[in-house]
Design a protein that fits this description.
The chain has about 325 residues and is α/β, with parallel strands linked by helices. It is globular. It folds into 2 domains: about 170 residues, Rossmann fold, CATH 3.40.50; about 130 residues, 3-Layer(aba) Sandwich (Rossmann fold). Helix 11 links the parallel strand 13 and strand 14. Its cofactor is thiamine diphosphate. Keywords: Thiamine pyrophosphate. It holds the Pfam family Transket_pyr.
């Protein structure tokens, strides 16, 4: 594992990691093309658009067309990255994603910004908390949610090499950059951030930083957790889950998503067949979001380190 991963004072949005990685890929590869639905300032594809205007396509407010155009470019041999808000890309365009991209297994990369309640003041209509579920239910779809800016850059460059459809959710707010030693993202592989024998904590996205804080608090209470950053929700890292579920005997999952259908559901589905243990889920409790600051909404909905600590203590008690 090397040195422990730590959160730093540096804060950057994962959507900025996407934009910066795209810009770098544009210089390296002429087959990379980018499509946006009139939101390039928000999705951060505008940097690519400015440098490579002949490979950038703004289709306007027409997300279904966005995905259809991306499919056509993939058939022509390009590697298209198509972006919009998570609510539109995984919701409004879902049928086109299923039938025009994933069913024919085209090499399209769907990168959705503004996922989860950390969209903030835009409110429940734009706070997509269902996208892990709707995307992972499509056969053969890869679903990813990075934890910070640096991991996002690695993910974007990795999926550019992968042949097949991928959905990546990135976020709006600036979140702590995590200092890692020799971390290399791999599709379908969890990052082991800490090892302990009392409880297995599995997190992704913005909840990884909260889980790191929780692990330190648990240590101060003489409870030792294994922490997995499960950036890839599908295909999920069954080997890591099974190994540490057996070691710890209980599991807590943490996600900025509905507890129905997301990371917690994926973990439960696997363990119920392979090694039944108690799985407690931290996430949106089957309720819509609200308008407010992103930080305030994490407090309001109980998506903080203290809530992870409470669930971990409960899971340990119930073993």
């Amino acid at each position: 594992m090397g040195a422990p991963s730590v959160s730093t004072s540096d804060q950057k949005a994962t959507r900025d990691g996407y934009g910066d990685a795209l810009h770098e890929l544009g210089a390296e590869r002429k087959d990379i093309v980018v499509l946006d639905a009139d939101l390039s300032g928000s999705t951060k594809t505008n940097k690519f658009a400015k440098s490579y205007p002949d490979r950038f396509f703004n289709v306007g407010v027409a997300e279904q067309n966005l995905v259809g155009h991306a499919a056509g470019l993939a058939l022509a041999g390009y590697v298209p990255f198509a972006s919009s808000f998570a609510m539109f890309l995984s919701g409004r365009a879902w049928e086109v994603v299923r039938n025009s991209v994933v069913y024919p297994f085209l090499n399209v990369k769907l990168v959705a910004s503004h996922g989860g309640v950390t969209v903030g003041e835009d409110g429940a209509s734009h706070q997509c908390i269902e996208d892990f579920a709707t995307m992972r239910v499509i056969p053969e779809m890869v679903v990813i949610c990075p934890s910070d800016y640096n991991e996002t850059k690695q993910i974007i460059k990795t999926i550019a090499e992968y042949k097949g459809p991928v959905y990546v959710r990135v976020g709006r707010p600036n979140v702590p950059v995590i200092q890692r030693e020799n971390y290399k993202f791999e599709i379908g592989k969890a990052e082991v951030m800490q090892e302990g024998k009392d409880v297995l904590i599995i997190a992704n996205g913005v909840l990884v930083n909260e889980a790191m804080i929780a692990v330190k608090e648990l240590e101060s209470r003489q409870m030792h957790a294994t922490l997995l950053n499960m950036a890839t929700i599908k295909p999920i890292d069954k080997e890591a889950i099974l190994k540490y579920a057996k070691l710890c005997g209980c599991v807590v999952t943490c996600e900025e998503h509905n507890v129905v259908g997301g990371l917690g559901s994926a973990v439960s589905e696997f363990l119920s067949e392979e090694y039944p243990v108690r799985v407690l889920k931290l996430g949106m409790k089957d309720t819509f979001g609200k308008s407010g600051t992103w930080s305030g909404l994490l407090d309001y909905f109980g998506l903080r380190a203290k809530n992870i600590v409470e669930l971990a203590e409960k899971a340990i008690r119930l073993k």
